[in-house]
Amino acid sequence: EADIAVLVWSSEAEELLNGQAIAGELSEQAAEKAAAMAEPEADVHASAEYRTHLAKVLSRRALKEAHLRAH
C-alpha cells in the first residue's frame, strides 16, 4: 500500500496566530499545536514519533515561509 499524505487543519494553531505576527516563540507554539493534531502511523520507513516531529518541523517551515511572503 502506498503512503498517502494527509492534510491536518489545526484550529488551535489558527486561533493562536489569528491577528498576530508570525514570528519567534509564537511560531514555535503554533507548530507544536499543529504537530499535536497529527496522528501518524509507524511503518518500516519511520516511527510515529519521527513523523510527529516531522509535522512540527514542516509546520514551522511553512509558517516561516508565510511570514517571509507577507513581508
Describe this structure in words.
- The chain is built from 3 helices and no strands.
- It has 71 residues and is an all-alpha fold.
- Helix 1 packs antiparallel against helix 2 and helix 2 crosses helix 3.
- The N and C termini lie far apart (42 Å).
- The mean pLDDT is 89.
Estimated helix fraction = 55-70%
Whole-number average pLDDT?
Answer: 89
What radius of gyration results from the CA coordinates? 13 Å
* Count of helix runs: 3
Q: What's the count of strands? A: 0
Q: What structural category characterises the helix and strand content?
A: mainly alpha
Give the N-to-C terminal Cα separation. 42 Å
- Estimate what percentage of residues fall within beta strands: under 5%
Give the helices and strands as they follow along the chain: HHH
Major β-sheet, in short? none
Tertiary shape: elongated
Point out poorly predicted stretches: none
Summarize the structure in short.
With 71 residues, the protein is an all-alpha fold.
Output the keywords.
71 residues, mainly alpha, elongated
Write the layout of secondary structure elements.
Layout (H helix, E strand, L loop, with lengths): L10 H7 L6 H14 L10 H23 L1
